[in-house]
Design brief:
By secondary structure, this protein is mainly alpha-helical. It has one domain. The chain is 68% helix and 0% strand. The chain contains five helices and no strands. Helix 1 packs across helix 3. The longest helix has 18 residues. The model has no long low-confidence stretch (mean pLDDT 79).
Length: 69
């Protein structure tokens, strides 16, 4: 059985690789899935209560990451 920490590291590595290699022209809207996942993981690490304000920020994860609402 894999530990939560190991699973998270693996997932973060996968997301990082996807973000570095995906072509927005070729991938079209699909490139936004790993972007959203990466932003969610970043917010989870630096602002664990980000979900409390998600609906109030009009689903704007980027503003939440940079600290603007």
């Amino acid at each position: 059985m894999i530990s939560y920490a190991d699973a998270l590291r693996k997932l973060e590595g996968t997301r990082s690789k996807e973000m570095a290699t995906m072509d927005p022209v070729e991938g079209k809207r699909v490139v936004f899935y790993p972007l959203g996942a990466s932003l969610g993981m970043l917010l989870g690490r630096h602002s664990p209560d980000w979900r409390d304000n998600y609906f109030e920020s009009a689903f704007d994860l980027v503003s939440m990451v940079i600290g603007q609402k």
